[in-house]
Amino acid sequence: MNREEKQEVVLALREKMQEFGNFYIADTSSLSVEKVNDIRRKCFESGIEMKVAKNTLIKIAIEGLAGDSSEMFSALKGQSALLFSKVGNGPAKLIKALRKGSDKPVLKAAYIDTAIFVGDNQLDALVSLKSREELIGEIIGLLQSPAKNVVSALQSGGGKIAGIVKTLQERG
Question: Of 3, 91, 121, 157, which is most buried, counting CB atoms within 10 Å of its CB?
Fold first, then answer.
């Protein structure tokens, strides 16, 4: 691979990292081609894009991201597969599901909206992260709850208010 080809790979990786905003680095070494193809198929079905690249090229692509992402560099050893997703916890859930049958793939690191998680021990924390849509739904539900209470109180007490107004009107 010549310098221009490497530069193209780095630019493509950096573009994906910025486009998706979330990516995971996983270890898929020692898996058979059949198993890796199965992982790719499940990634596609889940809306996750999987790319394999050399660690040095991944490192250069990460260096181009906003903020300090240097703590991810320690994870760039051995074979690395990148999992890109719009949903922050999507790849974590997929890795967890794939691990029911074997001990691979292993989570090396994750970059979720500028937050960095390093190590396979972070997998459970990443699975429990709520997606942006889930958080927005919860906030809307919380905001609607008091408004619904006020509206229902006004509707139920509407007859009482009308009666009080009518009584006051008759007195005046």
Answer: 91
- Picking from 79, 111, 73, the residue whose alpha carbon sits closest to that of residue 92 is 111
Which tokens sit at 118? Answer: 């390093």
Per the CATH hierarchy, to which homologous superfamily does domain 3-129 belong? Ribosomal protein L10, N-terminal RNA-binding domain (3.30.70.1730)
- How does DSSP assign the chain, residue by residue? --HHHHHHHHHHHHHHHHHHSEEEEEE-TT--HHHHHHHHHHHHHTT-EEEE--HHHHHHHHHTSSS--GGGGGG--S--EEEEESSTTHHHHHHHHHTTTSS-SEEEEEEETTEEEESGGGHHHHHHPPPHHHHHHHHHHHHHHHHHHHHHHHHHTHHHHHHHHHHHHHH-
Cα gap 23→87, rounded to integer Å: 10
Task: Report domain extents, the chain.
Answer: 3-129, 133-171
Which residues does 20 contact at the CB level (< 8 Å), separation at least 6?
A: 49, 84, 85, 86
What's the Cα-to-Cα distance from 112 to each of 21, 71, 135, 146, rounded to whole Å? 7, 14, 15, 32
Q: pLDDT means per 10 residues in the chain (172 residues)? A: 91 92 91 90 93 93 84 91 92 91 89 89 87 80 74 64 72 72
